[in-house]
Amino acid sequence: MFDEIHEECGVFGAYRVDNAASITYYGLHSLQHRGQEASGIAVSDGENITLQKGKGLTVDVFQKEKLDSMVGRLAVGHVRYSTAGGQENENIQPIVSKGHNGSLAIVHNGQIVNEKELRIELENEGAIFQGTSDSEIILHLIQKQKGTLKERVMKTANRIEGAFSFLVMNEDTIYAVRDRHGLRPLSYAKSKDGYVISSETCAFEVMGIYESVDLKPGEIVEFHKGIVKHEFYSTNTDNHMCAMEYIYFARPDSVVEGINVHAFRKATGSILAREDKDLHADIVIGVPDSSLSAAIGYAEEAGIPFETGLIKNRYVGRTFIQPTQAMRDRSVRLKLSPVSSVVKGKSIVMIDDSIVRGTTSRRIVQLLKDAGATQVHVRIASPVITSPCFYGVDTSTKDQLIGAQMSVEEIRDYIHADTLRFMTEEEMKEATHGVGLCLACFNGEYCTKLFSYQEELDK
Amino acid sequence: MFDEIHEECGVFGAYRVDNAASITYYGLHSLQHRGQEASGIAVSDGENITLQKGKGLTVDVFQKEKLDSMVGRLAVGHVRYSTAGGQENENIQPIVSKGHNGSLAIVHNGQIVNEKELRIELENEGAIFQGTSDSEIILHLIQKQKGTLKERVMKTANRIEGAFSFLVMNEDTIYAVRDRHGLRPLSYAKSKDGYVISSETCAFEVMGIYESVDLKPGEIVEFHKGIVKHEFYSTNTDNHMCAMEYIYFARPDSVVEGINVHAFRKATGSILAREDKDLHADIVIGVPDSSLSAAIGYAEEAGIPFETGLIKNRYVGRTFIQPTQAMRDRSVRLKLSPVSSVVKGKSIVMIDDSIVRGTTSRRIVQLLKDAGATQVHVRIASPVITSPCFYGVDTSTKDQLIGAQMSVEEIRDYIHADTLRFMTEEEMKEATHGVGLCLACFNGEYCTKLFSYQEELDK
Amino acid sequence: MFDEIHEECGVFGAYRVDNAASITYYGLHSLQHRGQEASGIAVSDGENITLQKGKGLTVDVFQKEKLDSMVGRLAVGHVRYSTAGGQENENIQPIVSKGHNGSLAIVHNGQIVNEKELRIELENEGAIFQGTSDSEIILHLIQKQKGTLKERVMKTANRIEGAFSFLVMNEDTIYAVRDRHGLRPLSYAKSKDGYVISSETCAFEVMGIYESVDLKPGEIVEFHKGIVKHEFYSTNTDNHMCAMEYIYFARPDSVVEGINVHAFRKATGSILAREDKDLHADIVIGVPDSSLSAAIGYAEEAGIPFETGLIKNRYVGRTFIQPTQAMRDRSVRLKLSPVSSVVKGKSIVMIDDSIVRGTTSRRIVQLLKDAGATQVHVRIASPVITSPCFYGVDTSTKDQLIGAQMSVEEIRDYIHADTLRFMTEEEMKEATHGVGLCLACFNGEYCTKLFSYQEELDK
Amino acid sequence: MFDEIHEECGVFGAYRVDNAASITYYGLHSLQHRGQEASGIAVSDGENITLQKGKGLTVDVFQKEKLDSMVGRLAVGHVRYSTAGGQENENIQPIVSKGHNGSLAIVHNGQIVNEKELRIELENEGAIFQGTSDSEIILHLIQKQKGTLKERVMKTANRIEGAFSFLVMNEDTIYAVRDRHGLRPLSYAKSKDGYVISSETCAFEVMGIYESVDLKPGEIVEFHKGIVKHEFYSTNTDNHMCAMEYIYFARPDSVVEGINVHAFRKATGSILAREDKDLHADIVIGVPDSSLSAAIGYAEEAGIPFETGLIKNRYVGRTFIQPTQAMRDRSVRLKLSPVSSVVKGKSIVMIDDSIVRGTTSRRIVQLLKDAGATQVHVRIASPVITSPCFYGVDTSTKDQLIGAQMSVEEIRDYIHADTLRFMTEEEMKEATHGVGLCLACFNGEYCTKLFSYQEELDK
């Protein structure tokens, strides 16, 4: 799935923490894998909210001078992957509203499925939108409601449907909110002097914090006057953590719903191997980086040596690809190199975490065979992707999903694998030890109404 | 050794290849691990040599427009790690001289030990130096000699002593030269339309080339009129490939003197395990990225599970570190995270490739123990570093080398490891199957006179 | 007044013109003197509106690639001078709203005096503001109204009070609107293939257009389906063109309300000289650039040679000024140099267009005396500034205006002039041949209610 | 001549001055009109020389941080206009050589005519050149000579022929050298704490210094141990100050060989008017900026009003010009606007300082006629340019000089002027009160041998 799938965000917050902007900067660093195209931080010094944001990695957007100028003990930050149509600066988060009664800053991870309906409703009532991000809708809804800020945030959370984990900050308070299906992760932890909030727990360890609390589906957590209060804005909740968080997005050192991501991945490899009793391969390799854990698990269970058969080029980032066919064909080589002395003359089990369009898998198999592999047995550490995601993952439309267009045998033939096998949904569940999962991209069972997206799906 | 040791360069050349500058750009990409601070390419269209260079990664220095403007079928390129004293633009390579009879471009990997003596001699004869790089000395020497360009290059190679692999290009010819001790690697390969030359073979595979030829110690290879000619400029040769190329620098998919680097590293892990029959640990982990191969080898031999106990943050690059003690202490955390659910309650064998100053090893052991490891047994896949390198590796001076100051037991105590073991020189040789190695940093046996550096060493 | 006073904007529009973004780029160029801190262009291709904006001069914000990517035949653009508190990116214009029924782009020159009241009203009705610019208020008001876009724009123009010349563009139409007092200029002209709209006529001549139409106070002009329609949104109009447009802001080649700016300035010099029958000076000099025309007029009328006694450094732009007192004292020298061979031993009439705080005038007089001038008679080509401006000119607050704090004689003494004279209001009117002027900064007679600014004024 | 002619440099030095790099930065500012494409400063703290340089205006190359890092009390700096073939970074000055006995920094204004011969000679003796600048040759020659640094500099000055004003700095001494024909200006002045050296005196006034000393032709001035020593390296001297320094390059506030540049220009206008007794025009205008002084002089003598008929756009700098014929035709409009209300219906005398290719003059005349001028009488404040310059002015080759190809009447016809007159050489000399001038571009009488350039000239 190398390079073919993207999540859209990570959020981080710091409450009553010295140098909150710097702490948020380090936090965003640890979440950078969730979004590399834009980054922003809003900081409050108790009276004013200052905003800085821009395109690029967090290190590129924030230099020392900029961080030093952001004084305050509350902050919220965001890293973003932007889909093709939304790279405008207007959509970079945090989004801040400046009113005569104060300011609000919001950062958001996820996707609101009734976004279109809400947008039309709000516009008909006189709202204007400068960008196309969900966050602007959330801000508008909060502004429209009556009551205290907490009441307005809770009413807003009840108006929006879909996947969301968002933070709202005013001059002296932060609210953390998670959708009632628990589609996206959100946790917080006690730091030495205050609290830190993060999409993933890996960001806490940078600060030397090893214990954290997950928000529950439908929960809002208030950080106010030094006190943390939990409350549910909805009792109509269920448990549907996005399976892709385990399979691909989250960092291996993160713990999602109590399950360590590396451990999960290793377990999937182990389960895959269990069914391959009769496969006699020479070595097991994984597609770096996300499939290495599964490959290790497979190798251990199967008793076949785990090898480094593919090397990922760490510096390939924004490499310009020469617009010739020959070079495009080589583009996968710029990112991945086969270790020919490892794979030459070998029968290989190659573990990948998923197949989206199939083109990359096809190129990798070809790479291995060009380098001398005699057989390539592809094992995918997740079920077949058959449906698009409307909860914040950019997996293309149905007609681009190879799993929606071909049978497993046809896919095997297309990618030139000798054999190909995917995990089953049951095996996935086994690996998560019963954590409630959203498997919509595998089985088309969406846990919410899809509103305007239903049409798109029906096409 | 994570982040504590640096080589100073990688070179790449393209002879009679379409879009030679683009090909060199891709080549430098694959060599980027050998130098990230500056990058440059000189291209010849047969009549003129055009030069572009700058600070930063190859992708940052060369954008599409710049590459498009570099027309020609011959090119030489360079990636550079610059030591503290030499970050000036004057030292970024290629260095080009423009004369009334034509131009010369040079790129160089290595370190010339009689550099100071040559510099004084040349200055006394009227030469001026604009920078402090060895390459400028080589250019001056070539200019001083009499005869054809090839003769002048050969005489120059005989005047300089030390570690060097360099390329010299004029409008229509490239010469590739390797020092007579074979201290630095240099190889070339046939491409579809011409030839490519590289410090490491990994750069060839990007172009779909799986076969290459290593230059021998003391050899000069001429690429002229479409013909490749091998010749020896010296018969006084020996075989002293830098052991660190295998241990740390080279990419795992490179083949150095016929030995694949990943295979070598795996073998070192295996050898380490062989001596640990009585050690009963729960898991084996490696310090990413360079020690993973050795850890895999150790785990396989020992029959202990290989685990991903440490995660490297891929985006940490130029992260600004807050100048407070607390933050400096955290800086290793920004780069490496322990996977606490993996290491918690475990007795661990941690494989690292080397120990330079000991401070990083100490921090990593601490990180693992903080995350709950019960025991950390450190195994180093190379001997104790006791001497500085004068052949192009930046390993600090003797007084900063922990191995020159402490016994193994003292080091173990300093880094808080439960047990610590290094490889022996004999084991190193076993892993390279008899390839002649320079082990000077381990045993102080330098294969050349050290000239002015002898003094530095004697202090 | 050199460097002490700033207007806040210039607007440009292009309707049904090939390469509308490029034409707007050239137009903004000619308006760059009205704002150098930020620049932006929105272009419509008939279906979508694309926005690009950023900090800096138009040439810095827009390079060839960016302009080439902005396809369409309708465009609006803006150059901006931003006051201290509002340099955020959120305030850079155009501001674009994106709705389900289409997008709107707005650019605005001027200042709305009931801005605070409207902002509170809109927020109470649920609006959120991301920035502090008036343009966002105008967009919100348009969104709130009912009816066709033209009706909504007209209703909006009736809701806002103050100085404004704004353009509103949707996918296929542009509306140009001027406030009912005519405080800020706005004109349009027929180009070869369509229409161009500009704050100043100087922008038309770049395109070879020598004839243009001024919008009248209270007028809205619709550019739709290739047709230009004039209409009045209000009949309650009067004529109060900002006198500072003539005195300082506008380019000498612009024609404002039928009067050429250079001709106006020359006339003021002439009038000043008329009253100086008994002053026998050696030479007349002007403070560059804005006071040269007046100096020429004075010299001609007085029969005293016009000389270049002060040179302006064209490259001083963003020069970093060393933070020492000595250097700050020198800062005016970096920008202006006396021509000592011209001024030495001379009795000088120095024409300046206005005095704001007096510090710069004081430094310039000192400069001339240091360079050897025997006498410096300062003549100001406008009346004494005694009141702040609330219509878009950044003249500081009342307590910083030297004319509000001191008598003319006290000012003369403060700036070390030998004699000092200002123009009278009657003389100003004479120079404009009866064009209705806003002279509020000279006489405190504001042509609108001041709303919340009244308070500020009363302090 | 607007935009068609370029000089190649300005030099500045500071000796025993606090913050020498900052002072040099301000000095280069005042010399920026002599070169806008690159800028550099080398500073010595008594032990080491630090170099910073780059493309662009001085303000763009040097920010606060960079200046702050350049500690020392000696400095030399350079601004550069680079001809088409030499924009490489290698040619940006200062050029610094780093030797085992110390470093030398050099900055140079002018052009060496025996450059090619010296380059070949030096290369044959083993020198290598990294760039194509004359400064590198000077450095090589200094290195080659025997004796003290002063002796070596003096010998070098005797080896090179042509136009040169250069500064050489080592760790504790600066030498200033001017060619024996006095082709380029060079002056120094006492500052509060030391000495400053500059191509033009205008740079001194920024520092509040109104007295300075010109170097004489063939002179070398040594700044050493706090003492200033004058000496002649050659007695074979003559006086040939470049006439173009007065006509076009120097800033009006500079004093060159005792003559103020503005006064010179005004005198040329006056002389031109003297011969126009029978011409009855309505107004006199000058082409900004360099021809305004002459226009003022003409108007005064002729008793015809001086008017601002053309406005120069101050922000046009790096404006991207759309590559269509229509836009190229407009490009002069982007830079110059006619004030139509001034020129309409008028018979105009238009003063320009020179005509190079004629294309710009032709466009300006057209601009004025398009704007309604009834007659345009062009008067050029210098003789006809008929020969190329080899002393540092970029006036194109002979076949591009309209004055070398056409008679005055043919030029008049080509540029569509009603009448056209140039000054005579005698009139030029009158305006300079007997200062010895190089008039080679007007009369082909070069004051030196031309060496390899003779060939170019003979073609």
TrEMBL record, chains A, B, C, D:
What UniProt keywords apply to this chain's record, in alphabetical order?
4Fe-4S, Glutamine amidotransferase, Glycosyltransferase, Iron, Iron-sulfur, Magnesium, Metal-binding, Purine biosynthesis, Transferase
| Role | Catalyzes the formation of phosphoribosylamine from phosphoribosylpyrophosphate (PRPP) and glutamine.
Q: Which domain of life is it from?
A: Bacteria
Q: Output one GO MF annotation.
A: amidophosphoribosyltransferase activity
Catalysis performed (reactions): 5-phospho-beta-D-ribosylamine + L-glutamate + diphosphate = 5-phospho-alpha-D-ribose 1-diphosphate + L-glutamine + H2O
Cofactor stoichiometry and binding?
Binds 1 Mg(2+) ion per subunit.
Q: Which residues form a coiled coil?
A: none
Q: Which cofactor does it need?
A: Mg(2+); [4Fe-4S] cluster
Q: What's the protein called, per UniProt?
A: Amidophosphoribosyltransferase
Q: Which family does it belong to?
A: In the C-terminal section; belongs to the purine/pyrimidine phosphoribosyltransferase family.
User: Quick check: keyword GTP-binding in the entry?
Assistant: no
Recorded source organism is Holdemanella hominis
Which Pfam families does the protein's record reference?
A: GATase_7 (PF13537), Pribosyltran (PF00156)
Cite the EC number: 2.4.2.14
* Amino-acid positions noted as binding [4Fe-4S] cluster in the UniProt annotation, renumbered to this chain: C242, C389, C438, C441
Q: Into which EC class is this enzyme placed?
A: transferase
The Glutamine amidotransferase type-2 domain covers: 9-226
Instruction: Name the pathway it acts in.
Output: Purine metabolism; IMP biosynthesis via de novo pathway; N(1)-(5-phospho-D-ribosyl)glycinamide from 5-phospho-alpha-D-ribose 1-diphosphate: step 1/2
Q: Which residues bind Mg(2+)?
A: S290, D352, D353
InterPro entries given in the database record: GATase_2_dom, Ntn_hydrolases_N, PRTase-like, PRTase_dom, PurF, PurF_N
Per its UniProt record, what Gene3D superfamilies does this chain match?
A: 3.40.50.2020, Glutamine Phosphoribosylpyrophosphate, subunit 1, domain 1
The residues responsible for catalysis, as annotated, are C9
